[in-house]
Amino acid sequence: MLAPTSEGIPEFARDTAELRAWHEALRAEFPIITRHPELVFLDSAATSQKPRAVLDAVHAYLTTSNANAGRGAYPWANRTTALVERTRSRVKGFLGDRAPGASTVHFVSGTSEGLRAVALDWLTTWLTDGDEIIVPFADHQANLSPWLEAQRLLGRQGVGIHVRALPRQAVSGDYDHVALAEMVGPRTRFVAATHVHHVYGADMDIHRLREAVGPEVVICLDAAQSVGHLPVSVSDLDVDFVVFSGHKALALPGSGAVWCRGERGPEFRPGGWSGTPNTVGIASVEAALDWLHAAGTDRVARWNRALAAQLTDGLRHLSPYTVLGCQRSLPADADVRRREGIVTFRHREIPSDDLGFILFDRGFMVRADSLCQAGADGTEEKDGAVRVSVHVYNSPEEIERLLSVLATLDD
Question: How far apart are the C-alpha atoms of 98 and 92, rounded to whole Å?
């Protein structure tokens, strides 16, 4: 619960004050941030900036060990092969996997490719005529379109499966676990869900899914906005797949992973010939996870929540703006969980794309479009919005500066 302290100081301000020295030391490790003090990067939900440790690891790999993995017996190839296997283990450890000997990790280009691989290389080999899957129709397109594509592919093969929408609570936007439990039947095989919503910034209470769906249903988690932003424990969440993008967790673009528990359904193996892995991207993932572990993902999460709380508390006093998502979480003394570093809003009069250009003219880099949000019919939503998303390199002063600029657009 976020509430004012006895001195009247909001908890978000107390958290940022307590973590100030920690934040300043970490912010100094991001060269692109320190070199451009006139700019404020507020688009970390799209991609994150990279700490020097990741840049150094990439440089060291490319200048000492660059080779193909699993295809040579000379030292550079051996070191690259060891890097890939070591990073698989690093991913398992970072995700709190308590049974790493039974799980697998496959490297992909990002969450979109990883979810599609689960859909087309795994789900389509397992489902039979009349089976049912439950998927989110109000999350990112990448966590909807692969499951609809799998349905179409199976349909062409004469296998009809039912796709149902993961139910949501009307007021908060959270998943409705009670309604989900009532939906699950004997032919329900699979549920896809999102850990942190890419528009509303909400932790979607994934730990409650297993109780709702029972012990046999496979759960696949889109963790693009959670891995690297807050602690993630696959053992505590009791999910079967976790898919994430490395580039949103401080690693390089074109990197990501699919973690698979491997206890329910067939073994997951990406289809086709594997080819050359993105070894430099994998090197960056290892370095990024090491950096995040040293920084402390619990503190990263506290910092990001505090900045989001500072922004929502400020926006609720600016009448032209509507913040998307749970309205109960906007004030400083909210008694519900706050946004995980993502705040999305609209201006009553200014179109969101125009507002994005206005903000960049004032030095702020934000996302301003439809945000790849899926609609009820499976297509992309058309309504635009401005999304502000933060990470450890952002500061309370930047949020206050943003609020000051937004206030000048008050009508």
Answer: 8
pTM: 0.94
Please report the beta strands in 131-261, taking only residues with DSSP state E, as ranges in sequence order: 132-135, 162-165, 188-194, 218-222, 241-245, 256-260
* Measured distance CA(10)–CA(177) in Å, rounded: 31
- Whether the pLDDT of residue 164 is over 70: the answer is yes
Q: pLDDT digits over 203-227, tens only? A: 999 999 999 999 999 999 999 999 9
Residue carrying the six token digits 């039979």? 128
Q: Evaluate whether 280 touches 61 at the Cβ level (below 8 Å).
A: yes
Q: What is the 3-state secondary structure (H, E, C) of 293-362?
A: HHHCHHHHHHHHHHHHHHHHHHHCCCCCEEECCCHHHCCCCCCCCCCCCEEEEEECCCCHHHHHHHHHHC
Query: Cα(first)–Cα(last) distance of the chain, in Å?
Result: 33
Q: From CA 45, how far away is CA 227, in angstroms rounded? A: 11
- Which three-class secondary structure state does DSSP give residue 149? helix
Q: Find tokens 């009448």 and name the residue.
A: 319
Interhelix angle for 11-18 vs 297-315, to 10°?
140
pLDDT at 1: 29
3-state secondary structure of 186: coil
Q: CA 242, 246, 247 angle in degrees (round to 5)?
A: 135
Whole-number Å distance between alpha carbons of 25 and 4: 27
- Tell me the pLDDT band of 333, cut-offs 50, 70 and 90: confident
Spatial distance between the Cα atoms of 197 and 208, rounded to a whole number of angstroms: 16
Instruction: Say which residues have a Cβ less than 8 Å from residue 9's Cβ, sequence separation at least 6.
Output: none
| Tens-place pLDDT, residues 179-206 | 999 999 999 999 999 999 999 999 999 9
Residues facing 387 on adjacent strands:
344, 367
Beta-carbon contacts of residue 318 (< 8 Å; ≥ 6 apart): 403, 406, 407, 410
Query: Where do the H-state alpha helices sit in 296-343?
Result: 297-315
The 10s digit of each residue's pLDDT in 23-36 is: 999 999 999 999 99
